[in-house]
Structures are given as structure tokens and as C-alpha cells.
Design a protein that fits this description.
Blueprint: H1 3-7, H2 45-56, H3 61-70, H4 73-77, E1 79-81, E2 90-92, E3 100-101, H5 102-109, H6 113-116, H7 120-139, E4 145-146, E5 169-171, H8 176-193, H9 201-216, H10 240-243, E6 269-270, H11 271-290, H12 295-315, E7 317-320, E8 324-327, E9 330-331, E10 337-338, H13 362-371, E11 379-381, E12 386-388, E13 397-398, H14 400-408, H15 413-425, E14 436-438, E15 441-446, H16 451-467, H17 469-474
Antiparallel strand pairs: 1-2, 3-4, 4-5, 6-9, 7-8, 9-10, 11-12, 13-14, 14-15
Length: about 475
Amino acid sequence: MNRRELFLGSAAAGLATALPAQPKAPAFTGLDGRPPVSQRRFQSQVIEDAMAEVCSGVRSPELARIFTNCFPNTLDTTVFPGPPRGEPDTYVITGDIDAMWLRDSAAQLWPYLEFAAKDPALSRLIEGAIRRQARLILIDPYANAFTRNLHDPPLPWAVHDETLMLPGVGERKWEIDSLCYPVRLAHGYWKATGSTACFDERWMQAAKRIEATFREQRRTSGPGPYHFERRTRTPTGTLGLNGYGNPIRPNGMICSGFRPSDDACTYPLFVPANLFAALTLERIGEISAKVYHEPAFAQQCMSFAQEVRSAVMRFGIVQHARFGKILAYEIDGYGNSLSMDDANAPGLLSLSYLGLLSQDDPLYQRTRAFALSPDNPYFFRGSAGEGIGGPHIGLGFIWPMSITMRALSSGREDEIAACLRTLCTTTAGTDFMHESFQKDNPANYTRPWFAWANGLFGELVLKLHRERPELLRQFTVQT
């Protein structure tokens, strides 16, 4: 069973499709879709003040309402801080799944970094997540999700997976980005607050484990130790060839078993994640040099990063008949490539958002144009809107995350406004983002409680408030 089977629902079904063992949806009240104050997991006056400031410059009541629901959703519903005394420790669920994904938890907290320096409690909350992520990586760098406690069983759909399941592991799908996002959060936290409190001996151990795992998955001396098989009706839920996936010819890039959608890679050399890994190694190198004063390891990471980036630029660019030279989504080193994009990040569309290519880079612009065209088999256009989906949910389902990412990576106000309009008109009356919606029927959606998508939408509105306030003052849902 996969997440689509568990969480495919509609506005009417709501959270009834979630697993019984998962946390219940918060009790929402009135026009304000947030839980009552007494039921919110974490409260920050700094965040409340920021939301009020943003909304004072928003013309559209629909946009203001969705923003005030979505932006604090992670803090309202998904964070579980440890005791106020002692080392900070924060467990973060995705929403309707009681597990901590390394990727999701880091992405969910990212939009709050700019406020952490003004709110010591918020800063401690984020530091606690960074510390927990380091501990989780040291349990198993190949795992993508972890349970609340070491003695908890794996996620129900992972119980019978044929792989090394250690205590505390919720699911063990090897995804390069699972090790990139925690470093992004830690590096961003350091830059935003100036605090190095999270960079203890354990964090450096985790960083060295990340670097070693990346090296291991270059597969220069065989397939390495990781393998994964699952009994499932969904081909993208498992890896073939005894759990090692399709073969590759080593070329300096890093192999990934799965994509950030948790779907299996067709070709293990996943291009967007390799660019993310290169930037991650550079960030580890900077932290190693400036915080830990380990110049040798810092240089090792920087050299490794350059090798990976050079390999991507040498082998990961393909000639498209319509768009010219663009980045492939996946390759195998034998000359085979896959041209597509998926809504999850990292993907081709999200390369500029993650800082992997500059927004005005011609290679990115050509690749972006491909991803947002019918030449991408997972770009869907319907009466409700257009955007990118992926095989995880299926054909015809658009992910709001991809529409938000399109706006975040655009330099055109008309395109940004169109994205905002689609996002505001496809919540099926819930005033929250969902995992996906059917292109002709927004009421047919998946995952009504998906904090990452909510936070990303909030991040977009904050960015527009800073950079394009006039757009927010003029925007209306009705054209």
C-alpha cells in the first residue's frame, strides 16, 4: 500500500481517509481555519505580527484568509517541542502522517527562519529540529522518515519492506534530498540568527556521515550496501534487480533510489538531487571551515561538490527537439535519459528556488519552459488550472506545490498573479493547500492536512510582500 491509497480523498471525505493511528485533524473554528488558540502546538507573537502586517497590504480577502491559515500551519499543528529545559529537541510531523520526514520537517520550518532572531522560543524550536535531524541521520542515513520514538513500529506500509530496518526508522527509501534538506535548514538557521548552538559534535558526525553516504552512492566499487524491496501493486514503490534499481555506469554523480515524491527513480542518477547534493557539500564545507575549524574536511567537501556539479553539467544535459539543451530529470551513465518533471522539490522547476541554478540562467529558463509544457508528461492542464503532478498520485492530478513553485521562480507579474488565482480557487472551500487536486475538479483532492504545501504558499506571499507589494495591493481572485 502506498500513500496514494491511504490518503486519496475529497473535500467530503476529509481526514477520514487517514490511518486511524495518526494524529487527528485539529478542530477548526469559524472563518479562521486555524485551531483554537488553546489547541495550537506552538505560538509566536512575532509570527502573528508578521501575518497582520502582510494582510494589511493584501486587497483580496480570499488571499488574506488562505495566507493566515496556511503560513502558521506547521507551528499550529505539527511541531512537538521537548521540555523547556535541557537540550532543544523538536519532533515534526508532516500533517496527516505521524512521522518525521527529514525533507518535509526541514522544508516546513524553513519559512520561519527570518523571524527566529526576533523570537527566542521560535529559535529554540528550530534548533531542536536541527538537533533531532542530526540524531536521525546517525541512526540511518539511508532512511527518509523516522518514528516519534525508537520503540515505535515502522509506518504501516513499511513493516514488511525487505531492507535493513533499524529501531526508529519509519520508512527506508534512499533519497539524496533527505540528507540535503537538514543541511539547508541548519545552514539557513546559522545565517539567519548567527547562532552556532546546533553545531555540536553530533551534528558534525552527521555531516561526515552525509558526505560518506554520498561517496558510497557514487557506486564506483559496486552497488553499495543499500537495497530496498516492497511487496506492492505500485511499481514506483519498490526497486527492481534485487532492490538495487536499474544499473548505472559510474560518472561522478550520486545514485538515488527514490525521488522526493518517494517514488522509485527510473534511472538512479537523479539530476536535480545531484545539484542539491553539490550545494549541500559546499554548505557543509563552509560550516566545517568557519564553525568547526576543520579545513581539511572542508576542502574535501568542496572538491567533492565540484566533481558532482561538473559531472551533472557534462552528462546531465540533453538536446530536446523543441527546447534545445535542457537538464534531464534522470540518467544512467550509459546514454539513456528521462525527460520529465515532478511536482516535488528538488525537481527541474524548483532548481532556482533551491539556489541550484540562478533564475536567469539560460539553461534553467529552457529547462523551466520544458517542465511547464505539454512536452513534460506530468504537466496537466484542465478547467481548474494547470500545473505539474507526477506518478505518485497519477495522471490528471496537479500539485499546488508546483503552482507555488512556478510563482516563486517567475519574474513576470502576470504569471505570478495567475498562479495565485489558481491556488486561491482550488482549495475546494477549505482555504488550505492540498497535496494534489484533479485538474477539472478541485473537490477531488488528496491530503487535506499537508503542512509543507501550506508553508510554501505562505512563503510565496511573504516574498511578494517584500518584493512586489503592489501586486498584493492590486490582486483579486476574480479577473
